[in-house]
Design goal:
The chain has 309 residues and is an alpha+beta fold. The chain has 11 helices and 14 strands. A hairpin with a 5-residue loop joins strand 11 and strand 12.
């Protein structure tokens, strides 16, 4: 089953543009767009040269999951300059002519030396992402060559080549303690470590409210793919009853996409939350309250924004 088309808007501000200090290249950080349980990563580069007649806009794909998704992009400057970019699964980058270089310094294009580019992003899944095959060695001492010990002293036999391939952080620990052939993970309890290893070996996971937040915290540190699944599950299951707990967990895990969705949920259910969970609302850290109030005041809260200086 293919995931529906995902659409996002991206506002890119390039500051301090003038003929005296214009750069050849301006680029954005990677933009993460979730399509169900999969995360696609894209970035844009704006090329300009005073000696050339036109400027170019490039788009790049970064994650492996992007190989199963098409990207369609429309970039605009004040509705005066428009360019279209289509990036199919077979390509990793694409460019298109944007507008004439002489227009870059036109006051009607700039606002106080700032060029604002509005980009409409459309990500479409065109191929099934192959499932990771089950492996038969999960929690099995047969051929195991290392042990992971949880904070509550539960011991898990693992196979270094499997676990190291799926978790760069665990690979560091495995290499560091190769002679001892075991390590105690003080930041993860036995039930959470069980689910983490189960996912690493089989790509299967059992979600429930009892384990999802601890799984997200562990996955943030140990496995990117599991983190994406936890984030997707939480976004799809936000409720009045759990929103504040998820928001705090998103902050602790430094998961910006989840935090953004939490703030949006709170904004859309503000008055109901003030009534049903008034004490929890009042106990929120001030930084969250500022984010919520700013979100309520913003007209285009769904637009991703980035500024190049």
């Amino acid at each position: 089953m293919l995931f529906p088309i995902v659409k996002r808007k991206f506002e890119w501000k390039i500051e301090n543009i003038s003929k005296e200090n214009v750069q050849i290249k301006y680029d954005t950080p990677q933009i993460q767009i979730y399509c169900g349980e999969f995360m696609t990563k894209w970035s844009f580069v704006f090329f300009t040269r005073i000696t050339s007649q036109t400027n170019h806009l490039w788009v790049y794909k970064h994650s492996i999951d992007c190989n199963y998704f098409d990207g369609h992009f429309r970039a605009m400057v004040k509705n005066r300059a428009v360019c279209f970019l289509d990036l199919p699964t077979t390509e990793t980058k694409k460019w298109a002519e944007f507008f004439k270089t002489e227009d870059l310094f036109d006051e009607s294009f700039l606002e106080n030396g700032t060029l604002t580019i509005h980009i409409d992003i459309e990500v479409k899944q065109v191929k099934e992402v192959p499932a990771v095959p089950d492996l038969c060695f999960f929690n099995d001492e047969l051929y195991s060559d290392f042990q992971l010990i949880s904070s509550d002293n539960k011991v898990f036999p693992i196979h270094r080549v499997i676990v190291a391939a799926k978790s760069p952080k665990l690979k560091i620990f495995i290499d560091k303690f190769a002679e001892q052939k075991k390590i105690i993970l003080e930041d993860i309890d036995g039930s959470t470590l069980f689910e983490l290893l189960k996912f690493i070996y089989t790509a299967e996971i059992n979600y429930n409210w009892e384990n999802i937040l601890s799984l997200l915290k562990a996955a943030t540190y140990y496995n990117e793919a599991l983190k994406q699944k936890c984030v997707t599950y939480l976004i799809n299951n936000l409720s009045i009853e759990n929103i504040f707990e998820v928001l705090i967990c998103a902050e602790e895990s430094n998961e910006h996409c989840l935090k953004f969705e939490c703030i949006k949920f709170i904004k859309n259910n503000y008055f109901q939350l003030r009534i049903q969970r008034q004490k929890d609302f009042d106990d929120l850290d001030k930084k969250f309250l500022y984010l919520i109030m700013d979100s309520i005041e913003m007209e285009n809260s769904s637009i991703i924004k980035y500024t190049s200086k």
